[in-house]
Amino acid sequence: MSGGAGRPARPPLAAAVPPLLVFFNPLTQLAYIPISVGLGRSLDLSPAQIGITIGAHSVATAAAGVLTGPLLDLVPVRRILLPGMLVNAVVSILLCLYQSYAVLTVGRLLTGFASGAVALCGQALVADLTQGDPKARDRGYSMLQTFVSMGAASALALGAFAASLQQPVIVFAVCAGYATVLLAVVLVARLGRERPPATHPADVPFGQRIQLTLRAIRRMLGERRRRWLILSSIGIGLIMQGSHFGISVLLDRLPDLSTLERIGVSILIPCGVFTGSFINRMSLKRISREQLFTRLYLVIPLAAAAYAAVAFAGLDVVAVALTLVLLGTCLGALMPLSMAISVNWNPELRATAAATDALSRSVGQTTGPIAVGALVAVGGVSTVGVVVFGATLLGLAASRNIFTATNSA
């Protein structure tokens, strides 16, 4: 594949790297959730402490977006990607050897930061590979969501399997192995050597380029429409991570389920996300990304309400399964859109725009498990869906304003 005028040709392997990169972030993030409850019990941790170890990953992912987003708009992707994979491999190996509350929290912070930077590299590469073709970029982000859902399903299945065997070290070992293999793939692909897109001439000194980039970022963040998009993305992250942690809490209260049943229930939301990302690509052939975004935010509160009702009523596994698939399908159709919209508004700052959306989701992903854990401690297991439903209302309120707001501050 040619890199375009003035750009070196990319090897064929380069196009396969972004999906592998975004697959890794949910693996490090979500595989831990099914083992977190049992691991927390063995370490005598409270539900809130367990929620903190889960949310630590998202906090670090958010920090990675703040730091590496602007940096990726200034330096080649490779300079960020290789250290990120190396940190993930080393820290995952250390987590295999020792676990405590402090070690888990610090380890999750480090792997969250590194995998967040790696995922952002994958999103930036998609923008580079589809430069000048917004429709191809939309399809590219939708395809990335497919691999994110595959990573999430694989991660939750892995976590449920490790939890059923009461062997949490399996999760850390698989993460270490994947990071090592992916590091080798990245080295062979030899990608990311080209210059990132910029809005200023290449002969401008690097220090001045930093100033110009930061000035452009400030203008971008000053847009009223972006503030509403940020709020709606926070809602997306809270819905996703809060619902995953809620499932882990529910499963922990159902000791009679078999290992296969636990794995099946754990991956239902990602399976729905996989279907939803396909619906996203099909829908974008007929309507715009903005129209699809606002319509989906009208539907997702209904799915979240069903999730909350099933948890409150304590219905059987079949009813739980149906609501989880419905919620996952809505999320899968919705999630690629906020990233595509964000980058489409500022393609010259493709990494920072992607990082802004990822950071917003991370805020929701961080608060989701903590809020669910705190509510369960007060109101019992049946309340796990209340936070998820509330998050959909937050996102719905924000989505009503995104495309009616002016671009000015």
Q: Describe it for me?
A:
This protein is mostly helical. Helices cover 79% and strands 0% of the residues. The protein contains 15 helices and no strands. It has helices spanning 17-30, 32-42, 47-72, 78-97, 101-129, 134-165, 169-189, 206-221, 224-252, 259-266, 268-283, 289-313, 317-345, 350-379, 384-402. α1 packs antiparallel against α7 (169-189), α2 (32-42) packs across α3 (47-72) and α3 (47-72) packs parallel to α5 (101-129). The two termini are 40 Å apart. Mean pLDDT is 80; it is low at 1-10.
Stretches with pLDDT under 50, minimum 5 residues: 1-10
Residue fraction in strands: under 5%
Gross morphology is: globular
**Beta strand count:** 0
The major sheet is characterized as: none
Q: What is the distance, rounded to the nearest whole angstrom, between the alpha carbons of the first and last residues?
A: 40 Å
Q: Name the helicity range.
A: over 70%
What would the average pLDDT be, to the nearest integer?
A: 80
Radius of gyration: 20 Å
Coarse structural class: mainly alpha
Number of helices: 15
Q: Helices and strands, in N-to-C order?
A: HHHHHHHHHHHHHHH
